[in-house]
Amino acid sequence: MSGTAVTIGAYDGVHLGHRALLRELSELAAAEGLSTVVVTFDRHPAGVVRPESAPPQLTDLEQKLELLAACGVDRTLVIEFDRVRAEESAEDFVKEVLVDTLGARVVVVGEDFHFGHARLGNVALLTALGRNYGFTVIGARLTGDGSGAVSSTRIRTLVAAGDVVGAAKLLGRPHEVRGTVVRGDGRGGPLGFPTANVEVGEDIALPADGMYAGYFTRADGSVHQTVIYVGRRPTFYAPGAAPVLVEAHLLHFEADLYGELSRVSFVSRLRDDHKFESVDALIAQMHQDAAEAERVLSAER
After folding, report:
1. 276 C-beta neighbours (distance < 10 Å), count
2. Does the structure show a pLDDT above 90 at 154?
3. Which one-letter DSSP state was computed for residue 117?
4. Are residues 180 and 292 in the same domain?
5. Which of 86, 115, 185, 242 is most buried by its number of CB atoms within 10 A?
6. Mean pLDDT score, 153-163
């Protein structure tokens, strides 16, 4: 290995701020004849260090790796983050990973970067260690959009509020969740709106309860205009009696989707979730939702 240009982080979402940093990494690597490496983790470190308050994730590991590869990164090193890793000092992490494993010559991180046990490591410490081990450290300024820094935290807040348009502007793409289509309670078909009940990981960020226009991507790569429901079906269940579901009604489509791995992306919020006075009122609203979703998605395309 002739040497590498490395960046380190959770890279949750691989958003526009991350991409700006990766472009800087690639430019520095090209100038020095180095390969690029992203060091990331198999789970968010907060899930181990403070699981009670760990943030929901914008991407699962598979999607994160796909997005990083699409940014032109040569390699991604995924480190298992467990309790032992959480207790590791910043100095030991640098020696083991950056020096001995990767032969780092350039390290690019955000200016607010922290690492190591109790997050005691920062850009200043990393720079000092770089002088000892022969690598240069760049503390990159955070990318902003006029309303603040582009960050995973900010995007999670937008997603949680149902502002999927705002989240997409910072992600550079619609927010997406992935999962297997499983059997639900079978209400959609009799109502005239069969849905794919997508089982999403518990640690994945979901938009606020409501109806959305978006896309459903099947395992075969085909993409379908979709009305997406996120919520607890208050017309049929008492508050708190049902779990949050992600249900996708594919427009102008009929097929058995059970067991398929799927991707659901959120383009626009159509309305809030609420309890209807009757099933007929719900069905009437669902027709309106489908028509509005088709209008929104056709205009967007």
Report:
1. 15
2. yes
3. G
4. yes
5. 115
6. 97
Q: What is the pLDDT of residues 168-182, one digit of tens each?
A: 999 999 999 999 999
* Other Cβ atoms closer than 10 A to 42: 12
Nearest to 154 by CA among 140, 145, 25: 145
Residue 217 shares a structural domain with residue 116: no
Q: Is the pTM of this model over 0.85?
A: yes
Q: Is residue 291 part of a domain?
A: yes
Cα distance between residue 143 and residue 171, in whole Å? 12
CATH number at residue 102: 3.40.50.620
Domain range for 237: 175-300
Residue 165 lies in a domain: no
Residue 67, both tokens:
């997005």
* CA–CA distance, 43 with 26 (Å, rounded to integer): 25
Question: Residue 126 and residue 201: Cα distance in Å, rounded?
Answer: 34
Domain of residue 243, CATH code: 2.40.30.30
The pLDDT tens digits for 244-274 are 999 999 999 988 899 999 999 999 999 999 8
According to DSSP, residue 60 is labeled: -
Residue 162 falls within a domain, yes or no?
no
Number of other CB atoms surrounding residue 92 within 10 Å? 12
Flag whether 157 is in a domain: no
Question: For the chain, how many residues are written?
Answer: 301
